[in-house]
Amino acid sequence: MKQLLLVFILILASCQKKENEVPTQEADSSTNLDSIPTPQLTLEQANNLALLPLHCVDQEYPNKMGHVTAAPEDQKRPTVQHPVFYGCFDWHSAVHGHWSAVALLKQFPELDNASELLQKLTSNITAANVAVEIDYLNSENNQTFERTYGWAWLLKLQQELDTWNTAEGKQMAAALQPLTDLVSQRYVEYLPKLNYAIRVGEHSITAFGIAFAWDYAVHAKNEALKQAIESKAMEFYSNDQNCPISWEPSGYDFLSPCLEEVDIMRRVLPASDFHEWLAQFLPGIENGKLDLELGEVSDRTDGKLVHIDGLNLSRAWVLYGLANQYDQYDNLIEIADEHITYTLPNLVADDYEGGHWLGSFAIYALQEAGKN
C-alpha cells in the first residue's frame, strides 16, 4: 500500500508546482498567479486517484462507527452493521469513496483497475445490502446518523449513478434509490426544525449539507426537497453581510464557512440578486479581492490536522463553481488554481488519516476545474 501511495505522490508532484514555489494570497503583490495553470484531471492522475477507493471501500479496519448502542446486540462488526458503506474508516468516507470510484470510472472507463474497482462497487451496492443500511437508519437511536454530511454525499453518489449509462450503473442506481429516498425525506423533515444555521468548518455545517442536496433535488426533480432547501437557505443566509473570512482557517476546518455559504446561495438565488448579495457578503470579491491564506498542515498523520488539506481543495471547488456559473468571477480562478496546486502533491501521505477521504475532495475539485 505504501509503495502504491509513494508512486501516486511522485506522479502528482511531477505535474504540479513544488509546494514552496506556490505563493499565498498574502505574498508579495508582484507575484504573478497567472503563471499557475489550472490543473486538469488526466488519465494518469485518475489511475492513481483510483487507488484510494480501490484500497479502502472494502477495508473494514480501522473503523470509526459513530454508532449509538442501545443494547449488547447492537455491537456488530462494520461489515454487518453497514454492508454497503463499511470501508474507508467511517460511513461518510465510504460513501464518497464509492462516489470517487464511480466518478472516475465514468470519466475514464479505460482505468487500469477498472474491472476490479467495478467488481467491488457492484458487490457492495446491492438491494440486499441497502436494505440493511435502511434498517439501521430506521432504528430508534440512529435516525440522525450522518446528518447532514453523510446524507449529502449519499445524494451525490445517487446522482452520479443515475447519470452512468451502463448496465452496472443502472443496477446500482436502482439498488441505492430506496436509501436515497429515505435520506431525502429525512432532509424534508429535518430542515424546518433547524432554527439556526450551523456555521462550523466540519461535518455538521449546514451550507455544505444542503448544497449537494440541492444538486440532487434539481437532478431528481424532487420539489419537496428543493423547496425545503431553498426556504432554509434564504432564512439563514439572505441577510448575511461581511463574512469574517479572515478568521479562516480554523484548526480543523475542511470546509470554509464563508465560501460554503456562497456555494449554496449561487444555487438558490437569481443572478441579479446573487451578485448584489455576494458584494455585501464578501466585499471586493466582485473585483477578485479575496483575503485567503492557504491552509498549512503540520502533521499529516493526525486525522484532524490533515483536514486543512481538504479545506484547500473545497475552497478551490467553490471558487471554480462560482466562476463556472458566472463569467464575471473568472478572476477568482487563479486563487482556486493556487489552492489546488499547492495541495495536490501533499494529497497522500504514507498513512490512512488523509488517504481514505482526501481523494474524493481532489476529484471533485478537479472536476470543477475541468469545467473552465
From TrEMBL:
PROSITE patterns (alphabetical): PROKAR_LIPOPROTEIN
A Pfam short name: DUF2891
Q: What is this protein called?
A: DUF2891 domain-containing protein
Tell me the organism: Nonlabens agnitus
